[in-house]
Amino acid sequence: MQSTFSGLNTMVNGIYTQRLGLNTVGHNISNSNTEGYSRQTAHAAATPSSEVYTLAGASQVGNGSTVTSVIRARDIYADRQYWKENSTDGYYNGKANNYAKIESIFNDSDNSGVQDAMEKFYQAWQDCSTTASSDTSRQNVINAGQNFAQSLQIAAKQTKEQIDSLYDDISLSVVKMNRLMGQVVELNKNIAGIEATGAHANDLRDQRDLIVDQLTSMTDITVYESANGMYTLVSNGTTLVNGITKVDLEMSAPKNNTTYSLSDYDIMIKQTGTVYTPGNGELKAQFEAVAEDKGYIDQVANMAAFMFTTMNDQHKAGYGIDGSKDKPFGNANPKDNATTNLNFYGESDKAFQWDAKTGKLAVYDVKTGAKEELSGMQILEILTVNSELTATDGHKKLATRSGERDTDGKLLYQAAAGGTTTDVTQAKKDAKGNPLPVDVNGTGDGSNAVWIAALFNCERDKTSPEVNGTDRLIGNGSLYSYYNTSMTTMGSDASNMNGRVKFQSGVMDQVENLRSSTNGVNWDEELSNMITFQQGYSACSRCLSAMDECLDKLINGTGTVGR
Amino acid sequence: MRISSTMMSNNYLKQLNGTYEQYSKLMEQADGSKLHRASDNAVGYSKYLRYQNNQISNEQYQSNVSTASSWMKNADAALVNVTDLLQTFKAKVEQGSNSTNNESDMKDIAKELLANVQEQVADLNTQIGDRFLFAGQKDTTMPFEISADKMDRGDTFTLDEKQSAFFSGATGWGDENTTVKQMLKLKGDDGNSYYMNVNTGDVYTEDFVKNGYKNEDKFDPKTQAVDNVTSGAAGTAKAYNVSENFDQYGVIKTDKDVGTNAKYNVTVDGKQVNLKLSTTKQYIVKYAGDDKYISMVKKNGGVDKATDTVNVTGQDINGCDLFDVGNDPHSGTARLNQLLYTVAKLDGADYKWAGEQGMTIADSAHATVLGAQTKMAARQQAYNSSSSMLVTQNESITSDISDVSSTDVALLATKLMEYQTIYSLSLSVGSKILPGTLADYL
Fold first, then answer.
1. What is the pTM of this model?
2. Which of B17, B29, B55, B56 is the best mutation test for A, with the most CBs of A within 10 A?
C-alpha cells in the first residue's frame, strides 16, 4: 500500500529533474561563447519503483525521475586530431613569420636593398674605367664601396637581431609552458578529487583541454588519460606532466657564439639537466628559423669574403695613379713607385685567403704571419674600405690601371732569371716584395677597373686571368647571380611556407568544425530543450496541484460528520 | 553533421577574413608593382632581380658609349683643325718655293709657318675636362711641348714615290710597299752632299738620288752606291745605327765618336772624301705621352682592345721618320719635327728645297693625320652601332621588367571590383542572416 503522500514526492522529483535540465540549458547558453566549453547534458532516469499490492497482485509503481549525471559532450578522437594538427599549424606559422621578417630585410623590390648597393658599386667601377684619371669618379668608387659594405652589414645585423628576437620569443614560450603545465597539474588534482565521488568534472575538464590546446600550438603533445582522470603529457619522448608531477623547463645559460656575435640557447629540463627538444609546433619552427637565419648571415658573409679574397686580389693586381712625377710611367721606366698590391677592403697589413677546408676566411697579419680564421658576422664586422683609400687623396691609390699583358691577356712580369714571365712566383720583386711589371699602363687606363666590374656580372671564366684560376666562395657564377640565387631560394621557401600555412589553416577549420559539431552549443537546440523543460516543469506542477486538490478534498471534504 | 551556433559565426569570420586578405593583397598592387617581397612570386622575383642587373649594365654601357663618343667628337674636332692648318701650311710652302721671293719674304713666310705649327701643337694638346686627348694613356700629362731654343737636328731627305720605289729595290715605279722613305744627309769635305740609306749603309751622290736614278732601267740601288759606311764594302747591307748618333727626336748627339764627332771615309771616283753628319738648327717638339690606348667597354667582360679603343696617340697622328728606326715606341712627334724642319729651311730662304722637299713633307704630313682621323672615324662608327643596339636591348629589358613586376591595371581593377563585391556581399549576408535563432520567435 502506497502512502498517501507518495504521489507528491514523485512530482517533486519531476520538478527537480526539469529544473536541473533547465539549469543545464542556462549553463550551456551562457557559456555558448566560452572558449573551450563543451555543451553539457543532464541525463535523467526513472527512480526505482515501489511494489504495490493491488487486488490483482503485486505491481510496480513509478516514483518519478532523477538526474543521474550531467555529462559534457566531447569527441576525444576530434580532440586528439586537433592537438596533432594544431602543433603542425603552429610550426608552419612560426616558419612563415620568420620568412616574412627575412623578406623585409632582403627586400629589393623598391631599389633600396643589397642589390641596389651592389649595382651602384658596379656602376661606380664602370664609370671610373672610362674616366680613370678623374678624381670625382675615383672617389665615387670608394664611396660606393663603403655603401655596399654597409648594406651587407645592415642586412646581416638585422638578421642577427631577428635571431635574438626569436630567442626572446622562445624564452617567453618557456615561461608560458611552465605556467600552463602547472595549471594542468592543479586541474589533474581537482578532477581526480571530484571524480573520485563519481561526478563528472565537466568544466574543469574543459579548462584542462583548453590548456592542452594552447600547449600544442607551441610544441608536440601526446595526451594519455589515466583511470582516475589525470592527464599525462608527453612531448617528443619527454614526459612533461605526469598526473600531479611536472618538469620545469628553463632556458640554458647563454652559449656565446662568436661566429654570429650572438648567444645561443637550449631549452633545459631543470630536474634532469637534459636538453628538451620540441618535436613540432612554434618552438620547433623557431629553433629551425634560428639555424636558417644563420644561413642567410653566412650567405651575406660569403659575399663579404668574396670581396676580401677575389675582389681584393683583382685590386691588388692593378696600380694606383700616385706614381712620382719625376719618374713617370712609360716604357722607359717600369719601376715606378705607384701603389700596387693594395687591399680594397681591409687594412694593408692584412692578407686574406679563403680556407676551403674549414670554409672560413683566413686573415693573415702581413708582418707577423699570424693567422686568424673568421666566419659569419666576424667577416662582416671587418668589412671596411682600406683607410689608405679613404684618406685624403687616397683615391689616387685606387687600382684602376693594370700592367702590360701578353697576347693571352696575362700580366707580364720581369722574370728573376731574366726576360719576362707571366708567373708571379718567378717574377723579380721590388723592395716591398711586389712583383715588378714589365710595364704599367698610363693614368687614363681603366682596364683593371673593368676587370673588377666584371666580377659583379660575369661568371668565373669570363673574369681576368689573375683571379679566374682560384676557387671562389660564391661558386663559379657572378656575384649578381649568387645573390639572385639566394634570394630566389628564400622567395620560393617563403612562398611554399605561405602555401602550407594556408593549407593547414583549411585543415584546422575542418578539425575545429569536427570538434565543435560534438561539443558546440546550438542555440536552437538549447531553446527547444528550454521549452521542453519549461513545459515539463509546468506539467509536473499541474500534476502536483491535481494531487494537492485530491488531498484537499480528502482532508477538507471528508469527515465532516461532527460539524 | 551537427552544427553548433559558434561554428557558423567562426566559419563566417574566417571566410570574411580570407576575402579581406585577398582584397588587401590586391590593394598592395595599387602602387603599380606586382612584387613587394620575394614570396609574392619567387620565379618572377628572380627574373626581376636578373632583369634589373641587365638594365643597370645596359644603362652603364650606354653611359660608357656616350663618354666615348664625346671623347672622339672632341678629338675629331681637333684633328679637323689640324688638317685645315696643314692645308694652309702646304699653300704657304708653295708660296715659299717661288724664286721671286727675297730673303725677308721668306723670313715672313717662315714666321707664319712657325705660328701654324705652334697652333697644331696647341690643337694636339686639347683637353676634355682635365684629360689630354692625344697623350695615350698618360692623359694627365700635357703631351706636346715645343722647345724654347733651336737645336741641331739631323738633315733628312724625304723621297718621293719614285725615289722611294727605286731605293727600296722595288719591282715597279708604283710599288707601294717601299721600305726606304727617307735618307740621311751627309756633308763631304769636298763640298758635296751625300745621302745614306740607313737600312743598308749605302751612300749615294746628291745628283744620283735626285736625278741619276731616273736613268736606271733596273731597280738595283746597291750597285749605284758610291760607298758603304757600315760594312766597308758597297752593296753589303748593314743597318746604320741611327739611335747611336741621334736621339729619338733627331737631335744630334755630341758624345765621343758619335753624332757631331762621327766621321766616315768614303772613296768617290777614286778620291778619299771625309763625310760628316749634316744638321739644321730648328725647334723641336717633344712628346710626353705614350703609345697606349684608352678603352671604354660596351659589353660584359674585360677590355677588348680591338673594339673598345677611343683615343689616337701621338704616334698615330705624327707617324714616324728615319730617327724612329730602332725606337719602340716611336717618338710620336716625327711629323711635327719634319714640319719644323721645313720652317727652318724656309727661314734659311731655301726656296728650291721648299719646292721639292717642302711640298713632299707637307703632303705626307696631311696624309698621316688623315689616316689617324680615318682610324678614329671607324671606331666611332663601331660605338654608334653598339649604342643603337644597346638602346634596342634596353627597350626589351624594360618591357621584360614591366612584364614581371608591373601591375596589369585592367586586370587589377577588375579583380579589385570583384573582391569588393564579394566582400560587401559577405558583410550584408553576415549582418542580415547570421543572427537568426529560435529566440527571435519565442
1. 0.86
2. B56
